[in-house]
Specification:
By secondary structure, the chain is mostly helical. The protein has helices spanning 4-32, 39-74, 83-116, 125-154, 168-197, 248-253, 256-263, 275-293, and strands at residues 212-220, 223-232, 235-243. Strand 2 and strand 3 form a beta hairpin. The structure holds protoporphyrin IX containing FE.
């Protein structure tokens, strides 16, 4: 069990993570309400929101859950002994779902669409939907957080009259297994993703590519991305997406096509928020062109 000093430090670290989580959400709210921005300024604003979400909100959230877990395993408060602790876990899970099911995808949608580009005075309808999702979701998230702070201060509902409290050894081993699995899978997923994001994209010599429509595919995470590239007179005239995942995120990545045609090369900047799929489509274009040369 944690001693007095340890509990004091835990409380400080717990509060720091909560403060930065609230600060991150509030900053996103403020930036999202900036008005009169042109498309490039809008992209910078959304890119800041995207980074605040990926760094501040994400890591603070993991910090809150980790310190909450330490409270439940290494202090007398336990996991299911007190109703207010159960209330805090319930609130934290609700917060997690809210942030990751609604806020995350809306932020990715906003940054990807502004990266692709549109006339900021006539934003596409899906952009407006994403934009209008942020305020209510963050308002509810902050409301949940203030409720959890109030629950912590007033500690209502007292101690549970329970016949059975999970033995600490069991909680420890379950937590340990959960943490090892969670961290292991996250690290594996991260390196797999990074290997694709850092993938080199070549610039095939178009003068060697015969006229016609050339197909190319790339497999990633069990899916085969396929494109058809139209070449005429050593110029890329068009790129058609034959197979792509059926999601908004994957469709954002198709924003690389005008860039490939403009640069006459598959080696272009990917779409922010859809980097991995962008790379897969670029590699498929490169494969199509290289395949036609052979
Ligand atoms: C993940 C689940 C969580 C658990 C198990 C948990 C548990 C605890 C415990 C046991 C304390 C210390 C009480 C004490 O000894 O004084 C505490 C303090 C605190 N918690 Fe949490 N917490 C969790 C999540 C959260 C969240 C999400 C928030 C805010 C949104 C929050 C806000 C606070 C605050 C502000 C304090 C300091 C209160 C004070 O100093 O009086 N906690 N928490």
């Amino acid at each position: 069990m944690l001693e007095k000093t340890g509990r004091r430090w835990l409380r400080v670290i717990h509060i720091i993570f909560i403060a930065s989580l609230m600060g991150g959400l509030a900053s996103i709210l403020v930036i999202n309400h900036l008005i009169g921005l042109d498309t490039s300024q809008l992209f910078i604003a959304n890119y800041s929101i995207y980074n605040i979400f990926n760094i501040v909100v994400t890591y603070s959230f993991f910090g809150v859950i980790t310190t909450g877990l330490v409270y439940s395993v290494f202090t007398h408060w336990g996991l299911t002994k007190y109703w207010w602790i159960i209330g805090k876990w319930t609130g934290t899970v609700a917060l997690f779902l809210l942030v990751w099911i609604w806020l995350g995808p809306s932020i990715i949608g906003m940054v990807a669409l502004t990266d692709i580009g549109f006339n900021s005075s006539q934003p596409p309808p899906n952009y407006t939907n994403y934009h209008n999702t942020l305020t209510p979701v963050i308002a509810v998230a902050l409301l949940i957080m203030f409720t959890l702070i109030a629950i912590t201060i007033f500690r209502p509902w007292g101690q549970r009259d329970q016949k059975y409290e999970m033995r600490r050894g069991l909680v420890l081993s379950l937590t340990g297994i959960g943490v090892v699995l969670g961290v292991g899978l996250t690290v594996m997923g991260h390196y797999d993703l990074e290997s694709y994001r850092q993938m080199e994209i070549g610039s095939p010599d178009l003068s060697q590519v015969p006229d016609g429509i050339h197909r190319g595919s790339v497999s990633y995470s069990g899916f085969e991305y396929t494109v058809a590239v139209k070449v005429n007179g050593a110029r890329i005239e068009g790129v058609g997406v034959v197979k792509n995942r059926d999601s908004d995120y994957a469709r954002f990545a198709e924003g690389i096509i005008p860039r490939v045609i403009a640069k006459q090369s598959p080696d272009v900047n990917g779409i922010t928020g859809a980097t991995t799929t962008s790379k897969c489509l670029m590699k498929a274009v490169e494969t199509a062109l290289e395949g036609a040369i052979k």
